[in-house]
């Protein structure tokens, strides 16, 4: 029988254990999902695009029941949810989670075992008990209005999705200006910083993991500079996955940096 997790490019998923009972599942080297294993059940943070059979891959790591939790509703983080009967996410994420990126992904999604999977809603302040391991839910919506961070008391990491990483954070909200998003992002980063005694590292969904929590301070400073108009602007948007252009999804945009933090945002 052909391996569903091998395609023309090779293995779809790779894995490594970075902390005890804590696994990074890497999709084609570009996107990270995380598997946190407790004594009673496991928690899978994000499911990538739904290529191959992520559930079968996860079941080679643990035989515990798996609770699928999403950082936000973009399909590159929810695409594999339909391999399970249910998933947990914020209410705002639930509005987008089943919206695939294009016709081919939609066909693949509808062919999965559970395209009508049940969505359970998580709220800011919820605590997930995996058995000897507790994960706190923190609402930090900016890149996506429904973004959640997960603070794990065993690995002492905060799992940040796309709201915090080393490559760039994309301010994608069409309903908000760049400065409005910078203000919201700054507020969210300050919220995480207020809880820094609970974690030692940040585990993003892209571009390196784990990374230093110094990035949180750098993003707070960068967001403040964007608000004040004193940011260090780069020549264009060139970066991880971005060509040297000055538009982002149909809006004129800039890239700015402070320390290790970099953000791409629309300009008025």
Structural notes for this entry:
- This protein is α+β, with helices and mostly antiparallel strands and 268 residues long.
- The protein has a domain at 6-163: Metallo-beta-lactamase, Chain A (4-Layer Sandwich), CATH 3.60.15.
- Helices cover 19% and strands 32% of the residues.
- The chain is built from six helices and 20 strands.
- The protein has helices at residues 54-58, 75-78, 91-94, 103-110, 178-193, 214-228; strands at 6-7, 10-11, 13-19, 22-27, 31-37, 42-45, 66-69, 86-89, 118-121, 127-129, 134-139, 148-152, 157-161, 169-170, 201-204, 211-212, 232-233, 247-248, 251-258, 261-266.
- The strands form five sheets. It has a six-stranded mixed sheet with strand order 10-11-12-13-15-16, covered by helices on one side. A five-stranded mixed sheet has the order 3-4-5-6-7. Strands 14, 17, 18, 19 and 20 form a five-stranded mixed sheet that branches.
- Strand 11 and strand 12 form a beta hairpin.
- Helix 5 runs antiparallel to helix 6 (214-228).
- The chain starts with 5 loop residues before the first strand and ends with a strand.
- The model has no long low-confidence stretch (mean pLDDT 95).
């Amino acid at each position: 029988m052909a391996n569903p997790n091998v395609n023309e490019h090779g293995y779809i998923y790779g894995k490594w254990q970075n902390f005890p009972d804590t696994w990074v599942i890497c999709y084609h080297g570009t996107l990270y999902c995380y598997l946190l294993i407790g004594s009673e059940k496991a928690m899978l943070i994000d499911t990538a695009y739904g290529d191959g059979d992520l559930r079968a891959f996860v079941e080679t790591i643990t035989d515990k029941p798996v609770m699928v939790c999403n950082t936000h509703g973009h399909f590159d983080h929810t695409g594999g949810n339909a391999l399970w009967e249910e998933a947990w996410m914020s209410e705002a994420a639930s509005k987008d989670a089943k919206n695939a990126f294009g016709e081919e992904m939609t066909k693949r999604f509808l062919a999965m075992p559970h395209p009508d999977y049940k969505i359970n809603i998580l709220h800011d302040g919820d605590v997930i008990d995996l058995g000897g391991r507790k994960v706190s839910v923190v609402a930090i919506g900016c890149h996506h209005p429904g973004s959640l961070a997960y603070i794990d008391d065993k690995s002492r990491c905060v799992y940040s999705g796309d709201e915090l990483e080393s490559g760039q954070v994309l301010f994608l909200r069409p309903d908000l200006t760049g400065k409005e998003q910078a203000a919201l992002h700054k507020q969210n980063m300050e919220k995480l910083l207020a809880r820094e005694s609970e974690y030692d590292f940040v585990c993003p969904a892209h571009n390196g993991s784990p990374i230093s929590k110094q990035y949180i301070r750098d993003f707070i400073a960068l967001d403040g500079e964007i608000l004040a108009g004193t940011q260090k602007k780069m020549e264009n948007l060139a970066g991880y996955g971005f060509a040297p252009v000055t538009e982002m999804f149909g809006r004129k945009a800039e890239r700015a940096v402070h320390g290790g933090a970099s953000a791409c945002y629309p300009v008025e």
